[in-house]
Each structure stands twice: as C-alpha cells, then as structure tokens.
Amino acid sequence: MNGKKNFKTAMTMFALVTVVFSMRISTSFAAVTHTLYWAAREFQQTMPDGEIVTMWGVVQDSNRNLKDYCGEIPTVPGPLINIPSYKNRLRIFLRNDLDVPVSLMIPGLKQTSGKNPRRDDLDSTGRMRVTSFREETQPHTVGKYEWNARPGSFIYHSASNPAVQVQMGLYGGVKQDYRDTRQAYKEVTTRHISEQILFFSEVDPDLHAAVADGSYGTSAYPSTLHYNPKYFLINGGNASPLIVGPRRSTVLVRLFNTGLQSRVPTLLGPNWDVIAEDGYAYNYPKKDQYSTLLTAMKTKDILLTIPASAKRGDRYPLFDRKLGLINNVNVDLMNINDPESGMLTYLEVGGRRPENSSFWPWGAPKTPGSYKTHQRRCEKVKLK
Amino acid sequence: MITKSKILDFQKSVVIAIGFMFFTINSHAAIEGITGPVFDLSARADHLSTPDGGSVLFWSYAETTKSTGQYPGPTLIVNEGDVVTVNLSNDLNVPVSVIFPGQGLVTTAPAGINPGLLTEEVPPGGGPVAYTFTAANPGTYTYHSGTRMELELEMGLVGALIVRPTIMGVDHAYNHADTQFDREILFLLTEMDPGIHLQVESGDMDLVDFTQRFPNYWFINGRAAPDTMRPVNDALLPKQPYNCMPIMHPGDRMLLRIAGGGSDLHPFHHHGNHSRVIARNGRMLSSSPGAGADMANNEFTIQSVPGQTVDSIFEWTGEGLGWDIYGHPTNDPGTLLPFEYAADHGKPIPTLEPDAKDLVIGPFYSGSPYLGSSGPLKPGDGGFNLNNGIVFMWHSHNEREMVNRGIFPGGMMTMLIIEKHPDPLVVINP
Lengths: 384, 430
Fold this sequence. Notes:
The complex is a heterodimer of chains A (384) and B (430). Chain A has 3 helices and 22 strands. With 384 residues, chain A is mainly β. A 6-stranded mixed sheet of chain A has the order 13-12-15-19-17-18, with no helix packed on it. A 5-stranded mixed sheet of chain A has the order 2-1-5-9-6. In chain A, strands 14-21-20-16 form a 4-stranded mixed sheet, with no helix packed on it. The longest helix of chain A is centred in the N-terminal third of the chain and has 26 residues, at 2-27. In chain B, a hairpin with a 5-residue loop joins strand 3 and strand 4 (55-63). Chain B is mainly β and 430 residues long.
C-alpha cells in the first residue's frame, strides 16, 4: 500500500518538475512582437508632372485602435516597417477601407497568421483556383497578419489580385538590423554610420484611372495585359538628394524594386559593395561595383564608403541604367536642369556631425511606436 | 566537250574565286580600338547600314580626325594607371556629355559652365570639354552620354573602354595568371528602335514616347548579322568599322568581353561549350586579394545587363563529344594533334553520315563533319568555310533579337569558327 502511494507521489513530483522545466524553456523563446495598426485606403497623389492619380495605400492609424479615421493620408510606398533588433515577430492589424478584399504578404519572412490562401471557383473536376495568396480582409473589416522577423530588407505587398493591387500602391518596405548599433547582418561586421532607402517603383496611370472609375474588368479595360508604366519613381516621387554620412563614413543603402520591370541602379563616383540580396547576406560580397541588377520585387543591400576626398555637399549621381528616366513629361517642356527625370537621384555627402540620415520623404515614422497624430476631427469608422 | 564534271569544277572555282575576293587573315588576336591616353572625340550624326537594306540615322562618338561618324564609338584601349583624357566636341544640335561608370571621380575642364544632371555638358556646336579620370583598375567597361540618356543612348552615343593590366601584360585581362588569354573579342551589345530614329530625323525628337520603345534592330559592335561577319573596316560599311567574328584553334583560350551598351538585358549564348566567367564589371571574381579568379563559375548563356560587363574565357578541344573530331581511323597509332583529346583518338562518329544529296546545308558546312576535312558539296552549298572548320552560332538567346526587322538571319548573332592547328586562320565573309 505504501509503495503505491509513494509511487504516485513520485510521479506527481516528476510531472511538476517537468512542467516547471518546460515553462523555463519556453520563456527563453518568448515572442517579442512589433505591432502596427494600419488602414488601407484610396487617395489622390500628384505625380511629378502635375497629373493627379488615384492610388491605394496603407497608413498608420494614429489612435492605434482602428475605430476612427483622423485624416491620415496614406503614402506609396507605405510606411517603412522598422523592426527593432530585439523583436522577433511582426503583427499588423489592417483595417480595409477599400471596397475590395485585401491581404498582406512579405516574401522572405515566414508568415504565421493570416497565411492561408483563399481558394475559390470550384470547377467540374473538383479543382479550385487560388484567388488570394493570403487570407483576405474583407472591405470595412479588420484583419490580423503575423510573421517571424529576421534581419534584412523585405517588401510587404497585397497578396490579393496582386496584378492590380500592387500596382495601385499597396506595398512598402520592411527592415531589421541584426544589432541596433547599426550592424545590418550578423555576417557583415562593418558597421554603417548612416542609412538610406531607395524604393524604385512605376505607375501606369491608365490602369489607375480604370480602377478609379470602375471600368477595370469591363470591355473598356479588361485586364492588366497592356500594362505600360509612364512614371518611374524613386521613393514614391522625385527623390531630393539623399543625405549620406560625411567623408570616410560608411552608409548602408537598401534597394527595393516594386515595379514590374528590372532596374539597374548605377552610381557615378565611388564604388559600393553589394552585401546582401532578399534579406540574406552573401558569403562573398560583390565588392567594388558601380552597378547592380534589381529585378522586380527584389531587395539588395549595399555598403558604400564615402571617399576621403569628399566635401560636404558633393553629389554622386545614382540613376537607373535601364533608363526609366522620363516621368510622362512632354520632353519639349522639360527643363534639362530640373530633376523631373525619373529614376535619377543623388547621394549627397553630409556634414561633420552624423546627420539623422534615414530620410524618408513621405514622413513615415522611422522609429517604432511613434505615430503622427493629426487629431483634427476624428470620425468613427463603420465596420461590418 | 563540256562535261558535267567540268561544269561542277567551274562552279566550285567561281565560288572559291568569289570567296578569295573577301577573305581576311585574322592575324591579330586583340580587339580593334584606339589607344590613348588622350582621345579627341566628336559627337556626330550619320547613317548606318543594316542588312535588310535599312539606313538609320544615329548619333555617336567619332574620332575628331575622321570625316564621318562611326557606330559605336571607338573602343578606347588604355593601360592600368593611365590618366585618361577625352576631349569631346559636339557636332550635334543637342547638348552631349560623356560619363565613365566604374572609373571613379571624373574631373572636367571647364567645369560649371554647362552643368548637366550628371556631368559637365558640351553645348551644340561647342567643345572641346576635357573629361579626365585615372583608369585605376584593369577590365572591360563602357562609356556613354550622361545627357538625356534615354534619347542619346538610343541614338547610339556609347562605346567600350578596355583597361589593360600593367603587371601581367596585354595577354591577360587582370593581374593574375587565371586571366591569361590567347585571343580576345569584344561583344558590345546594343539595340535600336528605328521608329524613334525616324522621329528624330524628322525633327520630332521632343515628341518621342520612350514608354513605347520597341527595338527592331540589334547589334554586336555596331553591326547586325550577317554584317557582323564582314571584315573590320569593310569598304561597304564605312560608318561601322568593327566586326564580331570569333575564330580560334582548338585549345586556344578566348576571352569574351561582353558589354551591355543598350538599355535591354540580353542572354548571350555561345554554342559549343560553357565558358568560365572570371570577372564582372571590371572586377575579378575573387574570394580575397591575390586569390585570382577562384570564384569563377561556368555559364553557357551570359546575362548581359545594361551598363554592366562580363569577362569570360571560352575554350574548345572537342573533349566530351565522344568521337574523333579529326576522323582518324580506328586504332590509328598516329601522333595526337595539338590539344587533341587523347581519349577520343580514333573513335568513330556514332552515326551514319547521310548522303550529300539527302541534305540541305548552308554556306558554313565544309562537306565533312571532321575538323580540317572537306567533302562533296552540292552546287551552291558551302563556300564560307575555306579552312574546313567547325562552326557554332553565337547569339542572343532572346530569339526575337536574331532578326533585322523581322528577317532572319540577323540582329545579335555571329558565328564562331574553330579551325585546325596549325593552319593560319582564314575566314570567308558572306
């Protein structure tokens, strides 16, 4: 009798100890999540030649509750997701203010929530068609998407009807450093003093007009078959010169291409090292190069050391050698010295003091958790 | 009496006679170009000739001392460490300039008088403006206009720049033994949309819509096939002095310098063998300084990106075919020819050769599958392969680019001819 009781006690103790130990093990893998509150909305954007084009973009909800709209204007590209190095998960709550279902995917990051494709259109043989790569967020509802994070540069974009929705503007960048002390990758031991983002994108205004006036999908504008971009943009517009560090300093340049055509960013002056592609550092960086091929939806990371002879204000032209260089401008009217010319910008040498050079022209927050509040009139949003 | 065989003899001799009117001995294994390090160039307009009978207005850099334009710009050949100066004058009615991607900082004299978006410009009818840089690194590069690039590059303002290494010498691509070559050949790849050139010629250059650009001509070193195979400085192509006619012996190391001079990507495919890519954009594929081209990889289709260059070594001996390329009899005890693959010596070709009358063959077949041997040809066949070499087509594998305005053969294409040791290399031009 005693033996049985002792055995039971021993087993209970054993079970307790096992539970305690497994709890200890699981706490060392606790998820630290970077959480964002976004809305997907339609808005009007002025192109470099003055034309107004309807776009779809995402914007951060200033109240972080997704219950009201306080006048936030979306951007294309959307807000840059800057995940702090100590966080290993990303969560986005997305309120869909459009009239079509949307979704989110980030090629290169493992998605853990909202990841199942939508299958539809059952045919006579029992097959279904994938109509969205990820779980849809229906119009006027809120969806949740989660990923495991890792250091690198990535692109988020809509996974629903991507031929239309990505072109309409539902995309943006994601970045995480390996260490917040400006080390981009574990394998890349050179630290950078400053960082710049270079987003290459295209806009086909005819497609946007068809979507805006409802003629997309009709016989007037049946599909994206005749996609023909007219605007070639850097960072969503005409990029002003991008300030990099002072001479002898190292700058990290993250390149993103969300157009459908390949681009060939080419730098005149100093040469750069291409250190990573698609969020993976090369075993052997491509050193001392002046050019790199950036295919559609590709990200590449570059380290550039500013020459010792550089002076503050020196500008190094950075242009697309695939010559996406005109922005729907009547060339007759183009002032040759006015940089309306498409995918052309400059890296400008900064001053002695390290500048705050993560210059994001559309005002998206650079640091996690800071939201611009335009607390004017906030209207409650009607959700389904 | 006129017999059938006499007629055949006569026809063959006519073919050979015509052939000899055009042959050229390719005695130099180096790339055509001009040496500096000071160059006087002028941006000029002229017309080039395409094999479909086309005449296309182009703009390009020409040597100022020449009386005409030339396409592409001259290949500038300098030595590592040279201080290079290009004095550019402008005979066009638009501003031009020249930039040198990969050559570091370029100074101009004057500077700041006509600043363009990328560099100092030369106003119409003006110049010379001196562009100066130090060619610090050996390799293959391009130079092109930095003004209104989408227009001026389409019109042809582009050329190649080759920097020779000083330590290892002119038969090396870089300062390492891995980059030694026996012969070298340049492939400067470009395209043209003749509709745009017509608009420019009609005075409508400011109305061109570049989003509708649709090339219909493709060039290697300024010539469209089959003109790629005509001689250098051919009198019939006075504005297009360079050709692209690769020719070698088995065992030669041929350096391919493939430069993207246009604005489209091209998959350059060289039939016959893989090549070993040793450098990209003027930098050896090296794991660390002094390691040579230890990161080289084999490719048989080389991706040519606009503005970028690839250096690759091509070799061919017949190894891997599995039969004796010279047709030695089985159990032949004879000595091996230079670079002959010993394991295949005396192995028969693993097929029955069809009768000549059952074949339709083009101008490059010698009549025999064996290297250095000829065979019976029907009247009108052959004639372009005087030394009975083995011929491989080298071309853009974007098949649409192998035509001239839709007519095949044409465009971005040429032939490699491999000729038997130790014959002097002879090529007959179509």
